[in-house]
Amino acid sequence: MYGMLYESVQHYIQEEYGMDTWKKICQIVDCKHNTFKTHQIYPDKLMPDIAAALSACTGESFDFCMNFFGRCFVRFFSNFGYDKMIRSTGRYFCDFLQSIDNIHLQMRFTYPKMKSPSMQLTNMDDNGAVILYRSGRTGMSKYLIGQMTEVAKEFYGLEMTAYVIESQNDICGGTAGPIKLTEGPLTVVVKYRLDFDNRDYMAKRVNIVAHPTQLKMPPVDLNVFLELFPFTFVLNHDMKITLAGEKIIETWILHNPGVNPKTFIGTHVMDVFKCRRPKDTKIDWNTILQMRTVLFEMELIRTGHNRDAYDAALNMDYENFDEMSLNEAQTMALAKADEFEKEQEKEQEEAAATKHDEIDPATGQRRPSVGLRSILLKGQMFYIKDVDSLIFLCSPLIENLDELHSIGLYLNDLNPHGLSRELVMAGWQHCSKLEIMFEKEEQRSDELEKSLELADSWKRQGDELLYSMIPRPIAERMRMGQEHVCQSFEEVSVIFIEVMNIYDSGSTNVQEAMQAVNTLNKVFSALDEEIISPFVYKVETVGMVYMAVSGAPDINPLHAQHACDLALRVIKKVKSHNLPDVAIRVGINSGPVVAGVVGLKVPRYCLFGDTVNTASRMESSCDPWKIQLSNYTALKVRDVGYRVEARGFVKVKGKGDMETYWLLEGPEE
Ligand code: HEM
Ligand SMILES: Nc1nc2c(ncn2[C@@H]2O[C@H](COP(=O)(O)OP(=O)(O)OP(=O)(O)O)[C@@H](O)[C@H]2O)c(=O)[nH]1
């Protein structure tokens, strides 16, 4: 389904439910698109999936969400100026309801691959109407109610309520997916009752009094129609073709070279046509009689595709054929067809031999498939009382000159007054203009996609940098606008790790300094790898000292154990690096601290209090490759299985004699 529908959904979900809800929905439906491209096609199931996700996020029902999306679409397409098109469909809401098919048809140059639904107004009265919706997509039936409700309100000032009278295959679609009971695509058929004030429209219909001169009009000779609409055909009650325009017969011969042209007349319509729209329509007299306001699309069945046989068949003067010579013409046409087939096979072998590219280097376009494309006729079935027949007043649906050629037709085959030519030429110009526009749009949206990705990566890098200076929970609070983030913690464990013998600060040797920086970087990177948030948080590095904390900013009752685990891990890890002469020593102390972000230019998360000073002393008075715990920390972890050894009383600067412990190992695994 085209991106335009998804753009409207994304726009209004973000506007009415917020960006976070939209992000959550994208996560749920695994949608990778930051934006949707208007003219790009996306999976149909995404629409019901997004509705199911919105329903899960908001508690609204699935139907409510699909109805909401339908309303979003109508509100959104005004951005493209389509509201003017809706307003011009007719004075009354019923006029609009009968023009929806046409609206989609007129948009087929802009959305060439559109598979739009078909709508048929089957009944009207003062209080509303009944409309029949057919589509190859599941899950859109409530979407349509939203669209019609919004159009009725926005463009006709009508309050409309709609409900489903009966339906077939109207299942929700989406990833859960329709359970395909039958092979091939499902056709969804839904009949709605629309309740709205329709008195004006009904009154208008009654008041149109035919002018007296119109009352006694002479019947029109059907051949006039066939001249005006050379692709037209007439059907009797058995739905057999009783009359046909010159061009439809010619085209049928062209597409069915071996068949006797005379057989076209008298054949059942469904033996020579496929009904493309409305889907799955029963082609019988009574059904079609009910569908006079519906736009039909009939595709001519073709059995063959060769020009020469056509010329041969066309140049035959069938009028004077008796049965025998008629077969002669057929034989000749078939011989021509065989010849053509052989030529084609030879050409394809040559093409295969010369690595015939699918893409024509001259135009960069895919080479058209050899042979003729079938022709699609669009029109309405009218009942002509005088001859008690149905006439299919139609024109060929041809988008551009390439398509005209691929069907084997020329501009002068198209009826001059039927606007088909103008449409083809306009379509052709429109398409080429559109192609340029699409390319530009593709380019712009690719650039937008790239800049969004770049912005994303910068944001990620910025976040990483920020989180390296400030713990994530603190950064999020500051991002939400919380000013001075300062907190006191009853008890944390502070860890100081010093890298020793790495550099003689008195030395002036640059080489040594460079070497020291490299080694320090290796050791600190190894320490960084052991920091597992939210259990332990890296606070800072000052010179050769690496400071960490457990129990802030995330409260953590096991802070002492996590601090000791970190210490044991880093001793083991740095030892495993076997860096010559390098050693580390670790000091840990537990107690209360105050923590907060200080500084504007380079904000830092800092800890304050005597607990920090003591932890630092535990490190600075520790032996290489050892972990020294304060008395308080040692008693805390000894009770939970950590092996500690009393070091005795240590003279600690600014603290006097302190009883400290060595940490030997963690609890038995
Ligand atoms: C000028 C306005 C409109 C434009 C440009 C437009 C265009 C489209 C496009 C591009 C699609 C997607 C089809 C596909 O990707 O295959 C679509 C689908 C659809 N349109 Fe329209 N449309 C318009 C007005 C309307 C209105 C007014 C209604 C009904 C009140 C309507 C009913 C639908 C429905 C129900 C679908 C869903 C597809 C389905 O059910 O199979 N459209 N339309
Ligand atoms: N890296 C780091 N070290 C700290 C912090 N707070 C205190 N210290 C260290 O803890 C030790 C004890 O601090 P104090 O009791 O204030 O001692 P001081 O007199 O300021 O500093 P010294 O000259 O080392 O005695 C000192 O070595 C400080 O450098 C801190 O937030 N970060």
From TrEMBL:
It is an enzyme of class 4 (lyase). GO terms for cellular component: guanylate cyclase complex, soluble. One of its GO terms (biological process) is nitric oxide-cGMP-mediated signaling. InterPro entries: A/G_cyclase (IPR001054), A/G_cyclase_CS (IPR018297), H-NOX_domain_sf (IPR038158), Heme_NO-bd (IPR011644), HNOB_dom_associated (IPR011645), HNOB_dom_associated_sf (IPR042463), NO_sig/Golgi_transp_ligand-bd (IPR024096), Nucleotide_cyclase (IPR029787). Keywords: cGMP biosynthesis, Coiled coil, Cytoplasm, GTP-binding, Heme, Iron, Lyase, Magnesium, Manganese, Metal-binding, Nucleotide-binding. Its cofactor is heme. It is found in: Cytoplasm. GO terms for molecular function: enzyme binding; GTP binding; guanylate cyclase activity; heme binding; metal ion binding. The keyword Transferase does not apply. Residues 340-366 are annotated as: Disordered. It catalyses: GTP = 3',5'-cyclic GMP + diphosphate. Belongs to the adenylyl cyclase class-4/guanylyl cyclase family. PANTHER family: GUANYLATE CYCLASE SOLUBLE SUBUNIT BETA-2, SOLUBLE GUANYLATE CYCLASE 89DA-RELATED. This is guanylate cyclase. The gene is Dmoj\GI23505.
